[in-house]
Predict the structure of Putative transposase/invertase (TIGR01784 family).
Amino acid sequence: MAKLKYIGKYVDPNTDFGWKLYFGREENKILLIEFLNSLFEGEKVISDLFYKSVEYDGDQEDMRRVVFDLHCIGNDGEIFIIEMQQLFQEFFRDRAVYYTSRLISKQLSRGKKGNNYCLPEVYFIGVLEFKLHGESNVLPLRNTDRPYFYDVALCDKDTHEIFYDKLGYKLVSLPMFNKRPAELETVMDQWLYVLKHLSTMDKLPSFLDKRIFGLIFEVGEIGKLTEEDRMSYESSLKHKRDAESVFNSALRSGEALGHAKGFAEGEHKQAIESARKMLSKGFSKEDISDVTGLPMEEIEKLK
C-alpha cells in the first residue's frame, strides 16, 4: 500500500478503525458511555454497557460500517438497547428503521411469553457524515440553535404527544456542526468538536474537559499503536479518503450537469420566445426553425 502523505498525530474517529478503537474496545468503553450520556442529556444516564456484538454490515465494501449492538444499564437499574453506527447518505432512514426493527424482532422472539409483548426500550444512535439540513423531506427542527442534532420519536402529528416512548433515534450530523471553541456550551458540543477535529489536533486543548477527554487523546496517539494497528489504521484512512474523493467527484459532476441543464433550459425558453415573435411578424415556419433551431413540430404547437 502506498504511503499516505499525512496521517496526523491522532487516529481519526471517523474511520472504521478509529470508531472501533475509541468506542468498540472493552478497555475504552468509558469513552462510549460518556459520549452516549452526552446525547441523552439526562434523559437517561448509562452506568454500564455490554457489547452484544461488534460487526460489519453491508454486502458492498463501501456500505460496510462498524455496528455496535449495546445492552445498557441505566443508573436506576433499567435495561435498554442501543444500536450505534456511522452512516453515509444512501437510504439512511430505511437502514435506521430496519436496524431497530430487527432489534425489536429479536427481543420479541426471545422474550415473548403468551401474549406478552412488553419490549425493552430501543434507541438508534447515528453519527452522520453528511448534511440533513435543507432536504425537502426533513421536518424543521424545533431547536434551530442545534441544526446538527435530531432527536426523533414516534409522536402524534397534530398534538406532538409521544405515541410510543420506548423507541427513539438520535442523529448527529457532523458537517452541520460548526461551533468554535468559545461556543461549546455542553458536553455534547465538546464531543462533537472532538469527533470532527481530533485528527487535526496536536494536543488536548484547554477548552476541553480533561477528565472526560484525556483518555481519548491518550488512546488515539498514532505513535503508540502497534505496527499491526498502524497498518490497519492507514488502510482504513485510505479507504475513507478514497470514498470521500469518489463522493466529491460525483457531487461536482452533478452540480456541473445541473448548471448545464439550467443553461440549456434557459436557451430553449429564449428560442421559444423568439419563435413567437417571428410568427407574429409573419415569418415562415421554415425560416423560424432555421433561426431558432427549434423543430417544426414544436413551432406548430406555438400557433
Summary: Confidence is low (pLDDT under 50) at residues 56-64, 134-142. The first strand starts at residue 46 and ends at 57.
